[in-house]
Design brief:
By secondary structure, this protein is mainly α. Helix content is 55%, strand content 0%. Among the domains are: 59-93, no CATH class; 103-155, Arc Repressor Mutant, subunit A (Orthogonal Bundle), CATH 1.10.10; 163-195, no CATH class; 204-253, no CATH class. The chain contains 15 helices and no strands. Helix 2 (25-32) crosses helix 3 (36-45) and helix 11 packs across helix 12 (186-195). This is RNA polymerase factor sigma C. It comes from Veillonella criceti.
Length: 253
């Protein structure tokens, strides 16, 4: 799995494994080939009740292995089948592991203005972080300090997947048409279809690259262009990326 790529765990699957089958977060992580922390985060995101039981760990043995044998936090987590954050917390309680010191340095005023401007124009916090080569946490911190309302795009929208599959495979509707029908983004439609095991057609939306770039030069964000042209955000970005003069090229008023 590529760096920075989000692990997709459908809510029904996680609910079945965790609640119905009674599997632990560690077992689920092993089953789905992801970290235990990822499983716990998804449980919180999906509002699935988490079992309130504290894992018992042999504290003296763990301290000995950490101090004398030189085992790291992740090695101990693997040994005791728990998350590395759990091990780190227990070691801190014993006074063995020191808490990390905060090294946050605020970006320059110009960069802060860029963050607010990009975000207001529809760019995501992750995109801004990559563009300005800073962390996503820093981007969100600056936005909150400036009183900018954060868009919670990680909220999962309910969609009847069976209907999507039927309309896509039997009625041959495109992801764009389905997005309009359900009032969601084409990317969301594509994601749900993939989760259902549907192979997506290679639909190419015919967008006029010149028009897309012209709108961008006139000051519209990729998100605004996508909404006005009735296409996905990724389709607009793809056209802009193909245009060599895209980066930083906008008309100055």
């Amino acid at each position: 799995m590529g760096k920075g790529q989000q692990v997709v765990i459908p809510r029904p699957l996680l609910k079945q494994l965790y609640l119905e089958k009674g599997m632990s977060t560690w077992s689920i992580a092993k089953e789905l080939h992801c970290s235990q922390d990822t499983v716990v985060r998804r449980l919180h995101e999906y509002a699935i009740p988490i079992h309130s039981r504290r894992k018992e760990l042999p504290m003296k043995e763990m301290a000995y292995l950490y101090l004398k044998e030189g085992l790291g936090v992740k090695q101990l987590a693997k040994r005791y089948q728990c998350s590395h954050t759990t091990v780190a917390a227990r070691l801190r309680n014993l006074g063995i592991l020191a808490s990390k010191q905060s090294t946050y340095i605020a970006p320059s005023l110009r960069k802060q203005q860029q963050i607010i401007s990009f975000y207001s124009n529809g760019q995501s916090a992750s995109w801004i972080a990559r563009r300005l080569q800073i962390s996503r946490w820093t981007v969100l911190t600056i936005l909150r300090q400036a009183g900018v309302r954060i868009r919670h795009s990680n909220k999962r929208i309910y969609v009847n997947v069976k209907e999507l599959v039927y309309l896509y495979t039997q009625r041959h509707m495109t992801t764009t048409e389905l997005a309009i029908l359900y009032n969601i983004k084409p990317a969301t439609v594509a994601e749900r279809l993939k989760e259902a095991g549907i192979h997506l057609h290679g639909n190419q939306l015919k967008l006029n690259t010149y028009e897309v770039c012209l709108r961008y030069q006139d000051g519209q964000s990729p998100l605004q262009i996508a909404e006005e042209l009735g296409c996905s955000y990724s389709a607009v970005r793809k056209r802009l990326d193909q245009w060599q003069g895209y980066k930083g090229a906008r008309k100055t008023s």
